[in-house]
């Protein structure tokens, strides 16, 4: 091939791959299989490696940017990013409509209604169709340059479908399904869960390592073109259609309406249906559709006069804070949890709410016996909004930070002065041991069936277990010594499961060790890369960051973990009993080549567990529904994916149906 032919081949491959990304992430209707995409991607990558002079910033191989070594640079916005006035009131929306009509001397106004995404504002600048800069809102005049991180968001094109120089604004968000999966993994890794999808999205976009951002599967919708008159656009409706045309993803439920009554109907509809979406919305945005009217009305100091956010009232309930319970995590973190009088809110009964830390309790002045106002943050996690101080009787009790561990009575404190969390400092605290062993035996780790939390607590408190390795030293007589309730069948099953676990592949062992920040997926990637536990122990930070998806923070956690003398001593013991090499195999082929989308809350599995089972049976867990989806596994309260699947004729599975397929009974 001549150099010109090589250049043409590279350009054609880029076009095909970028078209697939547009079809897959924006249109949700791919025309190419994942295998085809992967083959083309590998071919392009090899050509670019061989001919680096032809690499361009819009290539799909360039989605993961360079690490940001010194934080974020400041970006001065060419045009200010305004915030919106907002209201929760139908009367105020009618007043807004009346003022608009008066100022414009019009009797009827055409509005464009959009869903208000609960995410993070973003501004993108394209030059000749190529993404050059992505920045946050900041104070509206200046923001932070987050281009390297935004390049990892697959729904944002690196190259537009037209060679335009243009600035586009929108909202970055974290889908609810990803939020739940991330919190499952954080819980598995001993980290505090995110409070809501918006906080998770904001924290993710400000990560200094784009590899970490890529793992979170952020998404985005776009709704504004700066200086839209330059593109012969005359209305918000035309602007949205133009964004679609050039390859930008827009929220699909926007609607042009006539008059304020239809605005209110749109708002009421989505106040009732918001939970069906896979992204959090906290209201609707009402805009005058005609750009000439927008120009005539102009802006106040803070916001446009031609738009308003019509927000949904958060569902809030009063209940009694009966008690504060202190939980001790696997890493010793002491988390205060509010024990509440059960109350029904946003479709579920809430009995507990995490109070995060003792600074949070002090800031909100929460006391045992308080009447408190609660809501579901992001419609997902119960959260205390405030205490109702006027309802205090004087019998309320201040929640005091414990001066000893609630489990082992050992010393508590902060590991570092800058830490917020209070931790149990006793390395052999039974709570830590129990949590570590519960993780070690879990399905994604050593998969020792029949060892529930209560049984593990019983063995720990009888001092049969002081570390995970003790699981392999227990004899039948030890189990019988626990006393009543230990039947011969229980003992025999324990010994059988323990024996079976000795032959688990390395990635299961790495998951079970509880390395901070390392969940089942990262453990699998590490095991496949290094092959043996000995190689993992010897790995440097640079060795680890060579693995896609592992950033410097997690790499440091891993190196620190395997540098701890106490850990190394324990691992040397474990090596005597279990396999320490990777030989990942699919345990079945029931889902070979199948794409499965999971929606709703499952009764028997966490998101991490169901993902592992799908992978182990040859399938792939997908985040979006398309004509290439084979099954939708639907739990309780399934979202819009369920409805889309029905419209596309995708087969819907219950958990029982899914288990039958896995067991080859269907």
CATH class of the largest domain: Alpha Beta
Tell me the CATH architecture of the largest domain. Answer: 2-Layer Sandwich
Strand content: 15-25%
Helix content: 25-40%
Kindly give the count of domains.
6
What's the end-to-end separation, in Å? 51 Å
Number of helices: 24
For the sheet with most strands, the description reads: 5 strands, mixed
Write the layout of secondary structure elements.
Layout: H1 3-27, H2 34-50, E1 74-76, E2 86-87, H3 90-104, E3 110-117, E4 120-127, E5 130-136, E6 142-144, H4 147-150, E7 166-173, H5 176-188, H6 197-205, H7 210-215, E8 219-225, H8 236-245, E9 255-258, H9 259-273, E10 281-288, H10 291-297, E11 307-311, E12 316-328, E13 334-345, E14 348-354, H11 358-364, E15 367-368, E16 371-377, E17 381-387, E18 397-398, E19 412-413, E20 423-424, H12 430-441, H13 453-461, H14 476-480, H15 488-501, H16 506-513, H17 520-530, H18 533-538, H19 541-545, H20 552-561, H21 565-574, E21 595-599, H22 607-616, E22 620-622, E23 631-634, H23 640-648, E24 651-653, H24 655-662
Parallel strand pairs: 2-11, 21-22, 21-23, 23-24
Antiparallel strand pairs: 1-6, 3-9, 3-10, 4-5, 4-7, 7-8, 10-11, 12-13, 12-16, 13-14, 15-18, 16-17, 19-20
Based on the model shown, name its key terms.
single chain; 666 residues; alpha+beta; Helix Hairpins; D-amino Acid Aminotransferase, Chain A, domain 1; OB fold (Dihydrolipoamide Acetyltransferase, E2P); 6 domains; five-stranded mixed beta sheet; five-stranded antiparallel beta sheet; 24 helices
């Amino acid at each position: 091939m001549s150099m010109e032919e090589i250049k043409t081949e590279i350009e054609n491959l880029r076009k095909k791959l970028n078209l697939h990304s547009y079809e897959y992430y924006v249109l949700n209707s791919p025309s190419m299989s994942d295998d085809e995409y992967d083959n083309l991607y590998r071919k392009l990558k090899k050509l670019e490696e061989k001919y680096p002079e032809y690499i361009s910033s819009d290539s799909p191989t360039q989605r993961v940017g360079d690490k940001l070594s010194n934080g974020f640079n400041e970006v001065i916005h060419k045009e200010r990013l305004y915030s919106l006035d907002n209201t929760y009131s139908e009367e105020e929306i009618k007043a807004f409509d009346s003022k608009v009509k008066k100022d414009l001397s019009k009797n009827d106004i055409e509005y464009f209604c959009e869903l208000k995404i609960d995410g993070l504002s973003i501004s993108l600048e394209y030059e000749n169709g190529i993404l050059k800069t992505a920045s946050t809102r900041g104070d509206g005049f200046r923001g932070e340059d987050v281009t390297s991180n935004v390049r990892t968001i697959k729904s944002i094109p690196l190259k537009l479908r037209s060679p335009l120089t243009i600035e586009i604004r929108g909202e970055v968000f974290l889908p609810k399904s990803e939020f739940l999966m991330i919190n499952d993994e954080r819980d598995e890794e001993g980290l505090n869960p995110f409070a809501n999808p918006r906080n998770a999205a904001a924290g993710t976009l400000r990560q200094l390592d784009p590899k970490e951002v890529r793992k979170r599967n952020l998404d985005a919708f776009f709704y504004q073109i700066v200086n839209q008159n330059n593109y012969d656009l005359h209305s918000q409706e035309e602007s949205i259609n133009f964004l679609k045309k050039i390859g930008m993803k827009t929220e699909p439920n926007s609607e042009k309406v006539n008059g304020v009554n239809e605005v209110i109907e749109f708002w009421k509809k989505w106040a009732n249906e918001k939970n069906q979406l896979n992204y959090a919305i906290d209201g609707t945005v009402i805009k005058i559709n005609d750009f000439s009217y927008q120009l005539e009305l102009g802006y106040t100091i803070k916001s446009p006069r031609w738009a308003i956010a019509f927000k949904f009232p958060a569902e809030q309930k009063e209940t009694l804070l009966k008690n504060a319970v202190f939980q001790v995590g696997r890493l010793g973190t002491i988390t205060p949890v509010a024990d509440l009088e059960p109350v029904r809110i946003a479709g579920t009964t809430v009995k507990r709410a995490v109070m995060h830390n003792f600074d949070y309790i002090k800031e909100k002045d929460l006391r045992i016996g308080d009447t408190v106002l609660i809501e579901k943050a992001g419609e997902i996690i119960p959260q205390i909004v405030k205490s109702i101080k006027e309802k205090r009787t004087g019998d309320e009790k201040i929640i005091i930070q414990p001066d000893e561990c609630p489990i082992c009575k050992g010393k508590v404190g902060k590991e570092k002065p800058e830490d917020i969390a209070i931790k149990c400092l006793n390395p052999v605290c039974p709570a830590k041991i129990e949590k570590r062993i519960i993780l070690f035996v879990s399905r994604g780790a050593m998969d020792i069936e029949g060892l529930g939390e209560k049984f593990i607590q019983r063995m720990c408190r009888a001092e049969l277990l002081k570390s995970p390795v003790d699981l392999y030293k227990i004899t039948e007589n030890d189990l019988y010594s626990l006393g009543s309730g230990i039947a011969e069948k229980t003992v025999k099953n324990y010994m059988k499961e323990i024996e079976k676990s000795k032959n688990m592949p390395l990635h299961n062992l790495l998951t079970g060790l509880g390395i901070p920040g390392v969940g089942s997926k990262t453990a699998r990637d590490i095991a496949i890369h290094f092959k043996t536990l000995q190689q993992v122990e010897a790995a440097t930070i640079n060795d680890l960051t060579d693995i896609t998806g592992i950033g410097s923070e997690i790499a440091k956690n891993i190196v620190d973990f395997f540098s701890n003398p106490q850990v190394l001593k324990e691992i040397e013991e474990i090596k005597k009993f279990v396999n320490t090499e990777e030989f990942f195999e699919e345990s079945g082929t029931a889902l070979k080549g199948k794409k499965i989308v999971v929606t709703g809350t499952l009764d028997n599995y966490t998101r991490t567990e169901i993902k592992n089972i799908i992978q182990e049976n040859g399938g792939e867990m997908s985040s979006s529904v398309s004509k290439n989806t084979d099954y939708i596994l639907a739990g309780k309260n399934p979202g819009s994916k369920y409805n889309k699947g029905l419209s596309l004729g995708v087969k819907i599975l219950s958990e029982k149906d899914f288990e039958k397929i896995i067991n080859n009974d269907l």
